[in-house]
Amino acid sequence: MKKLKLITSCAFVVLVVAALSAPAPTPADARSNRYMDDDYTRPRFGAAPVLAIVGLKQQRITVYDARGKMLESPVSSGATGYETPPGIYSIVQKKEEHHSNLYDDASMPYMQRILWTGIALHEGALPGYAASHGCIRLPGSFAQRLFGLTNMGMRVIVAREDIAPAPIAQPFLFGAREVAEESDGETSILGIPVSVGRDNGSDLLQRLRLNAMAKRGEAEAAARREKELKQIAQKKAAEAAPALKVVAAAERDVARAEADFAATAKLIEGADTDAKAEKAAKAKELATAKLASAREKLVQAKAQAEAKAAAASTAKQEAEAAEEAKSTAQDAADEAELNTAPVSVLISRKTHRLYIRKANQPIYEGPVSIRDDDKPIGSFVYTAVDTSRSGALNWSVVSLYKDALNVEPYVKQKEPASKKKQPPAPPHATDVAAATAALDRLTVPQEALDKISAVVLPGSSLIITDEAPSVETGKDTDFIVFMSGEPAGSMAIRKRAPSQGWARRGGETDFWGNPRPRRYGGGGGGWSRGGGGGFPSFFGGF
């Protein structure tokens, strides 16, 4: 009996020690439920990712960099009635700690917003099927790693089924960069010297960024100079005001002296005795001296006032010139900063228009011709992923559907009967032939081509789609496109308020019925800077 007790006690001790030595489950693991670290691929180290694709049917996210698939993970997207709408998005905000203001202050760690009206990638529970309120939940450790890898503006595609991007030749819209005359192996792009045959896209981007930093420094120096000269102008103006008062006082003294002089003349005329005449003569002599002194003081006061007024006028002119110089330097800095951003182009068959954005700012909008425009063209995203050593851009393309031109009607996916993990199915291949054929159907105005081809950097992109840009495309966003014929449960719940604040232009309206805004940047009739409409009351949280 004692031997049995001893064995039991030893077994208990072993179990306790094992329990104490085993790693405790982290809160992230608890929230992620059945999907742990071994359910996703480890990231390759290197350049930042350029694209993320969420396959709703597979409940999977795959992240790509310039070399291909970088990492992938299971996800949980919107449940029935709260479906995550398939479409084209980009990261517009990142917050390591975030709480929902729609769903009981729910924690949303490592939140990466892809839609201002409430869809994001974030850490959350993954039961093995679509179960969120519209967001895309990620396993804990994966969400943290992805948060540290991504940059603002990275493209995120939500597709009905997982689609893999494929290499494609550079779209004709992104033609060769226009350069200045070459000299000794050197040339210039936007005024930036580059080495012909030696500079790749990264080199050019670095030089553009250095140029932007220099221009920003010049703008800051111009702002300081303007402030300094405005202070001097204010000081000179303050000094000129009392001088005018001195002149006015001197003029009054002269007027009194002249009156006294005139009075002495009358005294002399009225003197009837020698004594009175002598007294009047002395009074006249004194009045003459006072008048001369008053007039001299007036001349001096006027000279000083004129000098101070001239100094104030010069200071004012210098301040005004400094203000203009500051504005010019600020514009140059803004342009230089804009040149460091990839260009983003959208061509819509629905609106027959081409749109260009840079650094989330609209810079062009104009018509585009599409051959056989009564037939679908598909929805494709072309991305400049990197550059070769020769400076040529490498491009990839991904389709929103496995059959780009014959999209099957949406069929609700059934929740899997078995909760067991199934082997991951490979993604569908993008139909490169259909993507190439879509490009061949386009006729783009030269004005648009010039704006697109000025400087093409890695990260530049082209969207060709049957859809129109969403109303969500606005301030601080890249293009946002929703796929029609798909459930939009979460968007129906988070319906956006009508766009506000557009500047009218001849009573016209844009493609979603809002008043057309002013031109931006003098090209093609785009939006005014910062346009994009009003956000709903829950802007900044969901």
UniProtKB/TrEMBL annotation:
Pfam families: YkuD. Residues 50-159 form the L,D-TPase catalytic domain. PROSITE patterns: LD_TPASE. InterPro entries: LD-transpeptidase, LD_TPept_cat_dom, Transpep_catalytic_dom, UCP029342. Keywords: Cell shape, Cell wall biogenesis/degradation, Coiled coil, Peptidoglycan synthesis, Signal, Transferase. Pathway: Cell wall biogenesis; peptidoglycan biosynthesis. The active site is at residues 122, 135. NCBIfam families: PRK06132.1-2 (NF004785), PRK12472.1 (NF009120). Residues 1-30 form the signal peptide. Belongs to the YkuD family. This is L,D-transpeptidase family protein. One of its GO terms (cellular component) is extracellular region. One of its GO terms (biological process) is regulation of cell shape. Gene3D superfamilies: L,D-transpeptidase catalytic domain-like. It comes from Rhodomicrobium udaipurense. GO terms for molecular function: peptidoglycan L,D-transpeptidase activity; transferase activity. Residues 277-339 form a coiled coil. The lineage of its organism: Bacteria, Pseudomonadati, Pseudomonadota, Alphaproteobacteria, Hyphomicrobiales.
